[in-house]
Design a protein that fits this description.
mainly alpha; 100 residues; globular; single chain
């Protein structure tokens, strides 16, 4: 179910991946997960589903985007940045050589 909600929110185009990660990690419902992500990103909940707003935020925070951008993080580095911003454990980041 979480995957469907994430896809419906636009996945990495908006904030669906972040919200889904919070739902699974903190075992909270959708509304609470959206509020948590919005607070951590410093935006209103409504911005989470806005592709243009989230594109700018993702670029500023360097947390990945659907299109590879020169000099921007992707893959495990983007996940590391997400883990730090959302204050969540991400097992693949914790097992990697780049963990803090």
């Amino acid at each position: 179910m979480t995957y469907r909600v994430c896809s419906g929110m636009g996945g990495i185009r908006t904030s669906g991946d972040l919200v889904a990660r919070v739902q699974l990690s903190k075992k909270v419902k959708l509304k609470k997960a959206k509020e948590y992500v919005a607070k951590k990103l410093g935006v209103a909940v409504e911005v989470l589903s806005d592709e243009f707003g989230m594109k700018k935020i993702r670029e500023e925070l360097d947390i990945g985007s659907p299109l590879a951008t020169t000099y921007k993080s992707k893959g495990i580095i983007a996940k590391k940045n997400i883990a730090e911003i959302l204050d969540l454990p991400i097992p693949s980041v914790e097992r990697s050589f780049i963990s803090s």
